[in-house]
Design a protein that fits this description.
Length: 396
């Protein structure tokens, strides 16, 4: 509606002003069919002033040049061309806009130079100033519009970045919780289930009280149920098939485990005080004593303090490997080898169980993420003779 109103209004203004101009310009060419056609064309060109301002400028400026060149009376038929000029430049069609401005100035300037009359020259200068007066505010409008669009784009990018950062932090926290839940609580519950089974069998062999046997049976059943429920929770915290996730080489998720925001949780058997340090290689003997099967610790190389991240990773790798051994491998013994190398440390866990039954689930995924987070490499597979082997190389 705005475009139709503008075109109709400009057509009326152009027609009326040109007809009235003949009273003061008797030497002008009288309006004929061609003149009316050109006047209508100057107004109709504004049909495209919003969608294709460069086309609108070409039609309006061309029609105005024809009116001027044929000698029709000077009037307001230049207004549509000026409107189209402003629209073209403000819309970002700068090349077309300034080319149109040069054309509008050149059309009367060429004959003015040829005639070399002072009043004609002054009129052309005034016309050129008017064209510039229209084009310059159009440039300001274009620059303001571009600036506003850039500000809005940056604001949208910043909002999107904040949302992505929030999602990333939420995922990192989910991974941290999943890893700690699996590494600490799962191990502890697995130990409870194993020892409850052993105690139940011992009570049964010794002919102990039926109440004790029943209680141990409840403990064993409840702990196994807790492990199943914990696995379901881990599936929610760590979405996707357990084996389909790849370790994060940047350690985005695991970094939270090793940073200042991580709080020490309960150890494998006994509760850890909130002010105690995170577990490390020095606590491996205590971990092995509560593993539920005979475990031998071999240390190769000269012991030395390890970086906190690597030290914690050594402990977690051994803890998870032994948990898998107890739960899945039907092993009778295991060996943990801790080898200190120049600039690195290697921890290896071997068992004599059924290596084909070793799980490829959340535990191995969590170990791979932990090791990758500190720049290390984790390999798992069948042992050289039998059983299952987990090896982690860590820079330290």
């Amino acid at each position: 509606m705005r475009t139709i109103a503008l075109v109709c209004g400009m057509a009326g203004v152009v027609m009326f002003s040109t007809a009235m101009a003949y009273e003061n310009q008797p030497e002008a060419r009288p309006l004929d069919l061609l003149g009316y056609t050109l006047l209508v064309a100057t107004a109709l060109g504004l049909v495209w002033w919003r969608t294709r301002p460069d086309v609108a400028l070409a039609v309006c400026a061309g029609s105005a040049a024809g009116i001027f060149g044929l000698g029709y009376a000077l009037s307001l038929w230049t207004v549509p061309a000026l409107i189209a000029l402003f629209s073209a430049i403000a819309a970002g069609r700068r090349a077309a806009g300034w080319a149109g401005a040069a054309f509008l100035v050149a059309v009367p300037a060429v004959p003015a130079v040829l005639r070399a009359e002072a009043d004609v020259t002054i009129a052309v200068v005034v016309w050129a100033a008017l064209v510039l007066l229209v084009a310059q505010p159009a440039e300001v409008s274009r620059a303001r519009r571009d600036h506003t669009a850039e500000v809005e784009r940056r604001a949208a990018d910043a909002e999107r970045t904040r949302e992505e950062e929030a999602l990333r932090r939420a995922q990192e926290e989910r991974l941290r919780v999943a890893r700690e839940l699996h590494d600490v609580t799962s191990h502890t519950v697995a130990v409870i289930a194993l020892h409850a089974s052993v105690a139940a069998e011992a009570v049964e062999r010794a002919g102990g009280p039926a109440e004790a046997a029943a209680a141990l049976q409840v403990i064993r059943t409840s702990s196994r149920q807790a492990l199943g429920e914990m696995k379901a929770v881990l599936g929610v915290l760590r979405p996707g098939p357990a084996g389909s996730r790849t370790p994060d080489p940047a350690g985005s998720g695991a970094a939270l485990d090793l940073g200042a925001h991580m709080r020490p949780g309960p150890g494998p058997v006994e509760a850890r005080g909130p002010r105690e340090p995170l577990p490390g290689s020095a606590e491996l003997p205590r971990l092995l004593r509560t593993a539920g099967l005979p475990v031998t610790l071999d240390v190769e190389g000269e012991r030395r303090p390890l970086p906190p991240a690597a030290d914690l990773t050594v402990y977690r790798v051994v803890q998870e490997a032994l948990t898998n051994t107890m739960r899945h491998a039907n092993a009778t013994t295991a060996t943990v080898t801790l080898r200190y190398e120049r600039g690195a440390v290697t921890v290896r866990v071997d068992d004599d169980g059924d290596g084909s039954r070793a799980p490829r689930g959340h535990g191995l995924t969590g170990m791979a993420e932990r090791v990758a987070a500190v720049g290390g490499l984790l390999t798992t597979g069948d042992g050289p003779a039998c059983g299952f082997r987990v090896t982690a190389w860590l820079p330290a």
